[in-house]
Amino acid sequence: MLIDNIKTHVVGVDIRLESTTIAIIDIRGNIVATTHFPTMNYHDVGNFLTAMSDAIMNLLEQNTGIDCIRSIGISAPSGNFYSGCIENSPNFPWKGVVPLAAMLRDRLGLAVALGNDAHVCALGEWAFGAAHGMKDFVLLTMQSGMGSCIVSNGQVCYGANGFAGEVGHTCVIPEGRECGCGKKGCLEAYVTIKGINKTAKEVLAESNKPSLLRDVDTFTSQAIVNFCEQGDELAIETLRRTGKILGLGLANFATILNPEAIVFTEDLMVLSRWIMEDTYATFQEYVFRNIADKVKFTVSSLDDQTRALMGASVLAWDVKEYSLFK
Amino acid sequence: MLIDNIKTHVVGVDIRLESTTIAIIDIRGNIVATTHFPTMNYHDVGNFLTAMSDAIMNLLEQNTGIDCIRSIGISAPSGNFYSGCIENSPNFPWKGVVPLAAMLRDRLGLAVALGNDAHVCALGEWAFGAAHGMKDFVLLTMQSGMGSCIVSNGQVCYGANGFAGEVGHTCVIPEGRECGCGKKGCLEAYVTIKGINKTAKEVLAESNKPSLLRDVDTFTSQAIVNFCEQGDELAIETLRRTGKILGLGLANFATILNPEAIVFTEDLMVLSRWIMEDTYATFQEYVFRNIADKVKFTVSSLDDQTRALMGASVLAWDVKEYSLFK
């Protein structure tokens, strides 16, 4: 066997609404080179495929070449690991079921695996981050929606249809606030930044106290944190309420799964100083007694982009066969 | 190799408060012979071990002999599969951590596995019952408490400390009714027969209507079902409320796990005609939309005793080594 036939690297792809990032990664998780291009420039999935293939081939030509590449892993919102498809994405312009893994495989002649972004991020955190060595943990993500990935007994828990981990759509307040999903009282309706904006409106309506919140129509996570740091009582109260509801939702989550740790990603960490104390206190109040002192609250040790690329590389190393998808 | 060296059978043991049942079982799940003795006669665990060993050896002598026995599996409340111990049982007279699997192994010279009763029951249902062939399901049990076992991706989900599946202690009504566990608003506080008795008292207090419930101090599941069958409006209302709360709890459970099915055991089936319609309607209302029509409600196809013995036999066949526990 020639030395240059040994497959020493994989390609990781992180597809997001704004941007698609491509990286060449070695087996220790070192990123050798990256490139990216704007995702939303390609309203036709065929054009997107061409842009992605070209970007991968250019990156390989300028760096390791293709011969050392074993396979490709892709992280994508609405990705389905079993089918290798992006399925009914509410946000991408490509509608319906898009068999992206098979399309890229056929274009480049390399094995391709594709997974849901939350699941892929958990793989990254597991292989190279804060969850390294854990058999049972959950990873929480919070961007426009609240997602999670469950790892149980050393395996990602996908569920029967690939939808496991939708903790954001568990009900914390029966008959509560309407959620974007059409249900009532979902955790997500309270703890995303959109939900926190609604809570602020409730807090303002209940009080006559002055507040910087009164001067803004909507605010970002960083903005309300700034208000809190200036001592704004109603901003602090808003995040305390948010923390309590998050604690209740996580208590139910942990009571069902008994994870070793809940890993928070940085989207949540922006708020952490102002919500975590209430989150943890409420968590302790509502979690199953026998595990109350056993579940660690842990912070991700990877940044958002790195976590997704690392996870995509794990997917890539784990692909067993060239011909996974029809 | 002599034909009588082939291990064709295992011993399954089902330890309950009232009675300990022992069975010789073949690999197809056929029960060859059974015996049982009263558990609570033995306040000392050494005496219990002797009674159990003697019962096993007598049963073997009268039937297959010991040479064809591969190993022993035990189902026990508060059993921990990882340690082979009964741990801090609130009900057995043997306090603290009892290494029963190791004790029985050393006494009889056979490999012994021990598991939590809910987990063992799921194994039985999986190998020989309604969940046969499913990779993702949950089994619900309801006796004095509400238990469950999660099977995810073809594996029992034990959790980091063996406590996964405590769905009975998820909070369905924040700041709600006190539960025996010390927390507030647990599902178990509403759906066990003790909880249903409390709900009945609330229903009676809200209404002036006559009801058979007014003539009894406490009632069993069968008794309230009888009242419903006689058209007792307040009994029916009591079970409808119970059904709704159960549906909410199960919706959160399924939203997190995306199981193919929820398998109900007979303890719940006694009530089913009077709660299931509301349970399913509320489940549909609160479960994550993408899986609303995908989760089956299924009834166990084994009786309570058979399920535990079948599961214990699966544990026994799966024991790999003689020397599992210290």
Query: At the fourth CATH level, what is the homologous superfamily of the largest domain in chain A?
Result: ATPase, nucleotide binding domain
Over the alpha carbons, how many angstroms does the gyration radius of chain A reach?
21 Å
- At the first level of CATH, the class of the largest domain in chain A is Alpha Beta
Helical element count of chain A?
Answer: 10
Low-confidence stretches of chain A: none
Structural class of chain A: alpha/beta
Describe the sheet with the most strands of chain A: 5 strands, mixed
Question: What does the secondary structure layout of this molecule look like, with pairings?
Answer:
Two copies of one chain form a homodimer.
Chain A lengths: L8 E7 L3 E8 L4 E8 L6 H18 L6 E8 L2 E2 L4 E3 L9 E2 L1 H9 L2 E6 H12 L8 E6 L3 E7 L2 E2 L31 H4 L1 H14 L14 H9 L3 H25 L3 E4 L1 H4 L2 H15 L9 E4 L4 H15 L8
Parallel strand pairs in A: 1-4, 4-8, 9-12, 12-13
Antiparallel strand pairs in A: 1-2, 2-3, 5-6, 6-7, 9-10, 10-11
Helix pairs in contact in A: 3-10, 5-7, 6-7, 7-9
Report on the structure:
- The structure is a homodimer of 326-residue chains.
- Chain A has 2 domains: 3-123 and 305-318, Nucleotidyltransferase, domain 5; 132-301, 2-Layer Sandwich (Nucleotidyltransferase, domain 5), CATH 3.30.420.40.
- Chain A contains 10 helices and 13 strands.
- Chain A has helices spanning 45-62, 100-108, 117-128, 188-191, 193-206, 221-229, 233-257, 266-269, 272-286, 304-318, and strands at residues 9-15, 19-26, 31-38, 69-76, 79-80, 85-87, 97-98, 111-116, 137-142, 146-152, 155-156, 261-264, 296-299.
- In chain A, the strands form 3 sheets. Chain A has a 5-stranded mixed beta sheet with strand order 3-2-1-4-8, with helices on both faces. Chain A has a 5-stranded mixed beta sheet with strand order 11-10-9-12-13. A 3-stranded antiparallel beta sheet of chain A has the order 5-6-7.
- In chain A, α5 packs across α7 (233-257) and α6 (221-229) packs across α7 (233-257).
- The longest helix of chain A is centred in the C-terminal third of the chain and has 25 residues, at 233-257.
- The interface between A and B is large, with 47 and 47 residues.
